[in-house]
Design a protein that fits this description.
The protein is mainly alpha-helical. It has one domain: Four Helix Bundle (Hemerythrin (Met), subunit A). It has 5 helices and 3 strands. It has a 3-stranded antiparallel beta sheet. A hairpin with a 5-residue loop joins β1 and β2. α3 packs antiparallel against α4 and α4 packs across α5. The longest helix has 26 residues. The N and C termini lie far apart (37 Å).
């Protein structure tokens, strides 16, 4: 069955040729809740002392939290969410979403720098890097929560 026209995403082009889909407050709240859940689970996984591979899992969850938080902020502020295979385009959109978007965008970029190692790497992410990733994800998730509560 085809998706009803009213439920189909409405695409637009944002700076740099990235794609975004029109979003709303309800979707913003959902993405903020998802970001918070990723942060919570990343923190639990990070505290598992016996499993070195859990460092990479925690870092990977932190990356996903940052992406979801960025979506929530952009949906709340711009009514758009970045879509595409290259999550770096989300940093461009986030940069324009708030007065301190440059700082938020830089935080997301740091998380995205961890993405390949966390998701695809054959060497485990270090304890320091996993803790930093969780700290960055918490910052973005908390900001997303604040944005959707406005």
């Amino acid at each position: 069955m085809a998706t009803p026209r009213s439920e189909q995403p409405r695409w637009c082009i944002v700076s740099g040729g990235s794609h975004a889909v029109v979003s709303n407050r309800q979707e913003s709240r959902k993405r903020a809740r998802i970001a918070a859940a990723y942060v919570e689970v990343a923190g639990l996984v990070l505290e598992e002392p016996e499993r070195e591979e859990f460092l990479s899992v925690s870092a990977g969850l932190s990356v996903l939290a940052g992406i979801a938080a960025s979506d929530a902020i952009c949906a709340a502020r711009l009514h758009q969410i970045h879509k595409g295979d290259d999550h770096r385009g989300a940093t461009d959109l986030l940069r324009t979403a708030t007065p301190d978007g440059k700082k938020l965008s830089a935080t997301l970029a740091r998380l995205l720098d961890v993405k390949d190692a966390a998701h695809y790497g054959v060497v485990f992410v270090s304890t320091t890097k996993a803790r930093e990733a969780l700290k960055w994800a918490k910052l973005l998730a908390e900001r997303a929560k604040n944005e959707v509560e406005k």
